[in-house]
Amino acid sequence: MDVTLDKKLQGFQLVAQEKLQAIICSIPGKKELILEPELIKPLEHVCTASWLKLKGIQRIYKHDAKQRLPRAADQVHIYMIRSVLGTFQTLLRQLQPLAVLTPNESPDLALRMFHIICVPSCYAYFHALLEQAGLWGLVQLHHYNWDFIYLDHGVLSLELPNLYECLYLQGNTSALPAVGQSLRLLQMICGQPSMVLTFGGHAAQLLQVMQALGPVPESNNPPDFGAWLIIDRDKDYASSLLTPAIYAGLLLEVFQLRAGEIVIDNANNKIRSQKLQLLQGKLEYTPNVSASNSRPSCIRLNSACDEIYADNRYKHFAQASSFVRGQVKALGLELQKLNDMQLEEMHDYVARKLPKLTELKAKVLRHLNASEVVIQMLGNFRHLQTLEEDILNNVSRKRLLAEIDELLTTDGQRFNTLRLLCLLHLCAGVAPDELQGFARNYCNMFGHRELCVFQQLAQAGLLPALQPERKSSAKLLSNLPLPKFQQTEFQANANRLKLLTSCADAEQSAGADACAHPALKSCPSFVFNGTYIPLAAQLCSILLNANNADQLATKLAMIEGLQVHVGGQSSTAKAYAAQLKTGSTGTETADLFPLRLRNLFVFVVGGANYAEIAACDFVAKLTNSKITVASDALLAGSDLIAAAFNN
């Protein structure tokens, strides 16, 4: 029996369970599991509490960084934490008194009373820190990688939210081998693609890691993906910095996301937590929940579990919110039918339909509450989108800077105001003295301890380096208008790949199937209200619409850093097309285009977003293909900026 692609991707859960079982069953004794709070939600996708108890875990606790959990003499404590240096050191400080209380170390590794499982890797310096803390021989270290977590149809996540911070802010690539192992496991499950397209330094490093791990065992089954596309986050910052217009994207902008689940909390969401307290005012809207139930409700962003989300996830927010309100009215009319029913009809209705209607009503009310909070938190959304469109098109830089500065004063959002400045630097460039003026106002608003954030964002390429203030002569030079021919790297690539809506290519790619899909928008840029096409979606469209290697080379020839990997050889798109003509590609001489297998796998190194996922889904529908989007985490633009505050 043929196994569908979705079933194979859901099979990652079984692999993750086998790995965890191997670790737990190798530890004898009465075991208690202490979980870092951030790992609880992702672990729920791997196994249940009853499954853990079947494997010998007697009790499960949430780890408290402030105090150590007491332990009986015959109990074994297993800690599961993220592979973050600060978290590991905090745990070692908690366990350090054991070095005094337990002078005799156990010669048998399996008989140690304390074990630490690091997710996803256990780095070499963790062992050195363990020895320095005097815990060598008392505590055993393990590493565990749950690989990809299936969040929704066509959406996978490694749930490693600190990878962007490590790679782009700290320049620390130690987490890449774990990501490479997960991608190699995907190759073992779904087969090797005939082509891999990489864009960016980290993407190329990931491919090198996979090659260093050795060849994948051969399979008799055909591969599930025709091509892979691996993209660095910094190659398309615009898709993260722009505010999405779709329902799923705006939910992520306002609410915290943990392993595909958001918490609807009006008093403590992303917007309120970053806003200056003085400018917050009173709560204008309270979600429609009973007073006795103080626990905020949750929405799982999975189309198989929530039909309301399935119908609206990639729709424009205005369309989705009006649909949810219509559902509320329809349910009200449906429940009114009870008044006109006979007794026998009422019994049948209560037994069959009422439970389903009650469940549906609860889901609709959760989405209604969420949409109301989003509307309240975003405020003047149209003005924000107009501002972002002007930034993309580089319309009147001085006015744009003034508007961003005004938003800093009137709105007081810690992350989103910086996000607009980063978008301006990406699209038009920000001069050093302009950055100095903004940094001065920002620090006056939020405190001068935030000055180091600008250096962190410069490290990621989101802002220029903050320099000492210059004299008046330099300021006069900076006030001169910039020449029109100067382009940022983003502008150059956006023009070459036709990512802005003025490009005719996007219309052509959609025009052929517009009659067959009348309900669909005409361009993938609908995710940003018709202003910008995400890079991942445009590259997928180019791959799926290319009829031969020459067409691919024509569209990708001018893009620096983009590599085509076929048969173990790496080259540019132009060089690959030239090798096909001369027949110098070795054993692989046939042109791979048009792609015979029209399934693509897209991996974004450093966090994907729902705008990219929705745009790829749109391209897949137009081209009659399947596109699976995966990443280390699903992040909004404010999450990228917030990562700079963690250092």
Topology of helices and strands:
Blueprint (H helix, E strand, L loop, with lengths): L4 H6 L1 H14 L4 E6 L1 H10 L2 H6 L2 E6 L12 E8 L2 H11 L2 H4 L12 E6 L4 H9 L6 E5 L5 E4 L2 E3 L5 H7 L6 H15 L4 E5 L1 H12 L14 E6 L5 H4 L5 H8 L2 E2 L2 E3 L6 H5 L23 E3 L6 H6 L4 H20 L6 H10 L1 H25 L2 H12 L4 H14 L5 H12 L4 H15 L5 H8 L12 H7 L10 H9 L7 H7 L23 H11 L3 H8 L5 E5 L2 E3 L1 H10 L16 E7 L4 H14 L2 E6 L5 H7 L4
Parallel strand pairs: 1-2, 1-3, 3-4, 4-5, 7-16, 8-9, 9-15, 15-16
Antiparallel strand pairs: 6-7, 8-13, 10-11, 11-12, 13-14
Helix pairs in contact: 9-10, 12-17, 15-17, 19-20, 19-21, 26-29, 27-28
Molecular structure report:
The chain has 647 residues and is an alpha/beta fold. It is 47% helix and 12% strand. It has 30 helices and 16 strands. The strands form three sheets. It has an eight-stranded mixed beta sheet with strand order 6-7-16-15-9-8-13-14, with helices on both faces. Strands 2-1-3-4-5 form a five-stranded parallel beta sheet. Strand 10 and strand 11 (261-263) form a beta hairpin. The two termini are 51 Å apart. Residues 106-110, 283-293 and 503-520 have low confidence and may be disordered.
